[in-house]
Amino acid sequence: RLYTGLLEKIDKSKFDVYVFHVREPSGRLKRDFFTDAIDAVSTSQVLPRDLSEARAIIASSQLDILVFTDIGMEPFTYALAFSRFAPIQCVFWGHPTTSGIPGHAIDYYVVMDAAE
Question: Are 52 and 32 contacting, i.e. CB atoms less than 8 angstroms apart?
Fold first, then answer.
């Protein structure tokens, strides 16, 4: 839910939006996220739990920028974060400590001004 506003307001005439989930959203998240934030011009997909298959799906999307909402809260996304899927890869403030991921995989850590 933290990133719903970003997905709603991003200029989709300039950006193709892909959202990859590590598990099927349910409850309020599913209702709010899928009815408000994800629209007809966005792509949303639940990744298979097989790491190789998930990597192949993300890689096939040929992303220019990949943003992890957090790294470290979910072991599966932590494992994915070691791969290079886009020329620019960043992580948001979802987990407010270092990811521990080497610089060859994560280029930027994006935070709010108010958090610093």
Answer: no
Q: Look-up: residue for tokens 């994915």?
A: 80
Q: Centre a 10 Å sphere on the Cβ of residue 95 and count the other Cβ atoms it contains.
A: 17
Q: To which residue do tokens 């096939």 refer? A: 60
The pLDDT tens digits for 58-90 are 999 999 999 998 888 889 999 999 999 999 999
Each residue of 88-110: pLDDT tens digit?
999 887 655 667 787 788 888 88
Number of H helices, E strands in the chain: 4, 5
Per the CB < 8 A criterion, the answer to whether 92 and 69 are in contact is: yes
Q: What are phi and psi of 104, to 5 degrees?
A: -75, -10
Q: Which tokens in the block code for residue 83?
A: 């791969």
Task: Please say whether the beta carbons of 99 and 81 come within 8 A.
Answer: yes
